[in-house]
Amino acid sequence: MRLPKPRGVLSEWLVARLAEPGLTGEAPAPDSRDDESIALWTLHELSFRGFEDADERAEWDPGLLGVRRDLEEALEERLRSRWSEAGRDSTPRAGGVPEALEELVAEDDGPSLADHVRRHADRDQVLELLRQRSVYHLKESDPSAFVVPRLPVRAKAALMALQFDEYGDGDPNRLHSHLFARGLEAVGLRPEYGAYVDDALTENLEMNNAGSLFGLHRRLRGAAMGHLAAFEMTSSLPSRKMVQGLDRLGLAGPMADYYDEHVEADAVHEHLAARDICGTLAEDEPDQAEDILFGAFTCLDVEARFATVMLDTWGVAG
Amino acid sequence: MSARDFDHPDVVLVPYGPMLLRGAESVQDADGTVHRVERPVVALCRCEKSSRLPWCDGTHKVIPRGPRT
Lengths: 318, 69
Ligand code: FES
Hints:
The structure holds two protein chains of two kinds. By secondary structure, chain A is mainly alpha-helical. Helices cover 65% and strands 0% of the residues of chain A. Chain A folds into two domains: 9-81, no CATH class; 92-313, Heme oxygenase-like (Heme Oxygenase, Chain A), CATH 1.20.910. In chain B, the strands form two sheets. A three-stranded antiparallel β-sheet of chain B has the order 1-2-5, with no helix packed on it. In chain B, a hairpin with a 5-residue loop joins β1 and β2. The structure holds FE2/S2 (inorganic) cluster (FES).
């Protein structure tokens, strides 16, 4: 993947600096949320697959780490204030975390893109959605992989069971991000990692940044696992709707297979994530209970914001 | 925490949800068809409402809860 297109003064500064390591000078303040989001997305990406036109050492460059920290602090503060504004920030008992997660998910009333795809979306809308989704699905599960060494015994074993399945149970053909790439190709879209980052909406970048922020910081391991649980708990039924919508539009085949795989897989993963990962983590480290719920709330909240903008663009009420 | 052994059952019944089955190689459904298992853990539908029996597809979440099973 190549460096993304800048979206403002900060990302312009950053992309120039990554392409030419000799450059120095202070980072300017971002001039929009879009600028801020693509800058943080780019800095995080240095810890995933990186960019062919960026200096590899930039990942641990102290100056860039400072910029990253400032952007991460702003993002975390924003996410936490949404959580407290929503009034969902009561701390569950350590033993009650799986039930609290279930309740949070059951009460989620965010708009559903899968509902729209199932019944009404046209082909262009679905392709647009897939381009947006590709930003995450082509690195599916990678943020949670960073959390493995930071967990106590039971949560670690359960996370590995889940990740093993996400990564194809040892079969490269069944790796979820690879299934998605094959799906993209089959519907005529570009399958390369990061292909559509330049098209990603701000809300989509923020959704990805939240997941990477949680995954990359040991301090936020609870939030990372809560985020994972909410993601898995809201996947089976919507995936089935995606399959129905793709079939309706004549897009059956590898892309529908990708979603189809998630119907059954995530019916298992949601229990692993809520009980065996988050439940045991909260028992072993009770101070994580609150952040588990914060992470779960954030997953639902950023998805709802993304869905709202997509539906707005299409002139559809959520 | 001491280095103790943990409970790690092969079968877990999820309240109002599926049966999680670990380490199975094949499962025979109610019609007698045998399905190969390809994942380390599978969720078997107990509510009978799944669209892809014998596997759970999450449908149990949208049907009213009867007495706990
Ligand atoms: S138990 Fe999940 S669909 Fe029946």
